Amino acid sequence: MTASPASDWDVIVIGSGIGGLVTASQLAAKGARTLVLERYLIPGGSGGSFRREGYTFDVGASMIFGFGTKGHTNLLTRALADVGEHCDTIPDPAQLEYHLPGGLNVAVDRDYDSFVARLSALFPHEAKGIRTFYDTCWQVFNCLDAMPLLSLEDPAYLAKVFFRAPLACLGLARWLPVNVGDVARKHIRDQQLLRFIDMECFCWSVMPADRTPMINAGMVFSDRHAGGINYPRGGVGVIARKLVGGLERHGGAIRYRSRVTKVLLEGDGPSARAVGVELASGEQIRARRVVSNATRWDTFGGLVDAAHTPRAETTWRRRYRPSPSFLSLHLGIDAAVVPQGFHCHHLLLENWQELEAEQGVVFVSMPTLLDPSLAPEGRHILHTFTPSAMEHWTQLSPSAYRAKKQADADRLIQRLEAILPGLAGAIRHREVGTPRSHRRFLGRMGGSYGPIPAMRLPGLLPMPFNRTGLQGLYCVGDSCFPGQGLNAVAFSGFACAHRIGADLGLNPWALPA
Fold first, then answer.
1. In 3D, which of 349, 496, 513 has the Cα closest to residue 32?
2. Which residues pair with 362 in a beta bridge?
3. 277: exposed, middle or buried (C-beta count within 10 Å: 0-12, 13-18, 19+)?
4. What count of other Cβ atoms lies within 10 Å of the Cβ of residue 299?
5. Using one digit for the tens of pLDDT, what is the confidence trace for 265-279?
6. What is the DSSP letter of 53?
7. How far is CA 444 from the centre of its chain?
């Protein structure tokens, strides 16, 4: 076992997901000596990319928010710019196309008025309610977009931002305890339309409207029209690689194949403090602050033993549970099978009763429609995934596991024939990932997508921020306010870096412009 000197680093970040990288790069830009430790070979976690036989596949979804050019909600743009980086992006003319029961097909246009008109034409008796509901989402978005999004745990920040935008702050506080379903039912009565709004939430929160916070919906339902969906040229993994480049340019470092097994603590009980980490190799590295980009389940009970786990984590686990993982297919297909005008992103559901069922909803991304360089000439990438729980993939023999992968993948491809006839015969490259794959490569308990409410909760109020009950230990990522999605975890990264910057005396006095 080896140990680093007592003050080698100001901050250690465990994991190089987008939340961890935004935290690390922001801190490095403030002057903190920052080290990222990544267990795998590439950065980005579920926001990474990998190459196979001429294809560049995104690990997770390719529907990316946060690359706008105005306001404050363009968090990926801002995170990169803060460390001297920039991503070339390609605008998507639509967020996605829904294929829903009863022949309900809706494409969400980049233009807001076009989308509202399209939806109102399908539900003319609800035209007023549709406009009022989505206009309400804009109220939330405008509050968010009026202020730099930093740590709500910093009283100095709260005072400054309230002085700059008092009405926006008061408006945002109003929506914190509210869920989408409460607002939708206030303006809309048609049950099929309410189910559509459930699906609007499910496509990114994996929860129906009653359990989706209004703050998150305000961001997503409006930013897709304000900043728009913009795909990073070269694949989603470019974001992580550029953040790493910015981190290193500002004196930070990242180490791959460095699996952290323990957060080092000094002291007992309430006085315990995180002082570093221990790797699987036995090496110990010390720092003034430690940030976990692992899920809270992997952090407490894994990196931190049960004896030192704060009581608040038990309360959190009663309120939230892990979402399912995914069955995921990365396919290379003949371009000839893709019809003219096919959208990049699709969502498919045949039966409303299957909304939250095992392998119920099907998500589809075809990023080569925006960036053809990701596949060989004459080919397209088709990434499709559907929620699947770990319990369906455990205690299988190797042969039974392989057989289930084959059968479930074949069934998923058969379902996709409804929107891509002839798909099965057009596949030239095929890789199947299961919850076990997600657990292995992403290091997430059960391969989970992130926390979802275990009960009906008051909006985002119960979601924890970045500080934990242990001194010197912070969390960042989708287990923290405001939740899942690349732009959301970037928000968490900005907030975490700001809170640590306040604790270390590194923050500038003025708020960002």
1. 496
2. 348
3. buried
4. 24
5. 998 877 899 999 999
6. T
7. 13
What pLDDT is stored for residue 268 in this prediction? 83
In this prediction, residue 8 has a pLDDT band, given cuts at 50, 70 and 90, of confident
User: 23-40 burial by CB neighbour count: b if 16+ within 10 A, else e?
Assistant: bbbbbbbbebbbbbbbbb
Please name which of 384, 479, 470 lies closest in space to residue 427, comparing C-alpha atoms: 384
**pLDDT tens-digit series, residues 46-96:** 999 999 999 999 998 889 999 998 888 999 999 999 999 999 999 999 999
Give residue for tokens 């206030």: 186
Average pLDDT for 254-262: 97
Helices (H) and strands (E) in the chain, counts: 15, 20
Contact 227, 67 (CB under 8 A): yes
276 contacts 287 by C-beta, under 8 angstroms = yes
Q: What is the pLDDT of residue 182?
A: 95
User: Could you read off the pLDDT of 219-238 as tens digits, one per residue?
Assistant: 999 999 999 999 999 999 99
Q: What is the pLDDT of residue 3?
A: 43
For residue 34, which of 47, 42, 22, 46 has the smallest C-alpha distance? 22
Number of Cβ within 10 Å of residue 91's Cβ equals: 12
Q: Global pTM?
A: 0.95
Element (H, E) at 122: helix 112-122
Asked if residue 171 has pLDDT above 80, the reply is yes
How many CB atoms sit inside 10 A of residue 460's CB?
Answer: 18
From residue 293, alpha-carbon distances to 231, 369, 483 in Å are 24, 32, 13
Helix (H) or strand (E) holding 22: helix 18-30
| DSSP annotation string for 398-454 | HHHHHHHHHHHHHHHHHHHTTTSTT-GGGEEEEEEE-HHHHHHHH--GGG---EEES
Looking at the DSSP assignment, which residues form a beta bridge with residue 37? 14, 255
Cα angle 356-65-61, degrees, rounded to a multiple of 5: 50
Comparison of pLDDT for 443 and 499, the residue scoring more? 499
**pLDDT (mean) for 245-264:** 97
Place of tokens 């233009």: 111
pLDDT of residue 7: 56
For CA atoms 281, 287, 289, 291, give the dihedral sign.
negative
Q: CA dist 500 to 11, 119, 123, Å?
A: 9, 45, 49
DSSP three-state, residue 126: helix
* The one-letter amino acid at 509: W
Q: Which of 405, 64, 393 is nearest to 239 (CA)?
A: 64
